[in-house]
Amino acid sequence: MTDRNVQVAATGDASPRRVASGKKIGLIVNPIAGMGGRVGLKGTDGADVLDEARRRGARPVSSERALQALKKLAASNAEFSLVTAQGDLGEDVARQAGLHPVVVHDKPHAGSTPADTREAVVAMLRECVDLLLFAGGDGTARDVLSVAGDRVPMLGIPTGVKMYSAVFGTSALNAGDLAARFIEGDPSVRLREAEVMDIDEMAMREDRMSARLYGYAQSPHHRQLAQNAKAGSGLSENVALEAVSRQLARQMRPGCLYILGPGTTTRRVMSALGLPKTLLGVDAVLDGALVGADLDEHALLELMQGRESYIVVSVLGGHGSLFGRGNQQISADVIRQVGRDHIQIVATLEKLVALESGALHVDTGDEEVDAMLSGYLPLRTAPDRTVYFKVRS
Question: What gap in Å lies between CA 117 and CA 95, rounded to an integer?
Answer without folding.
Answer: 19
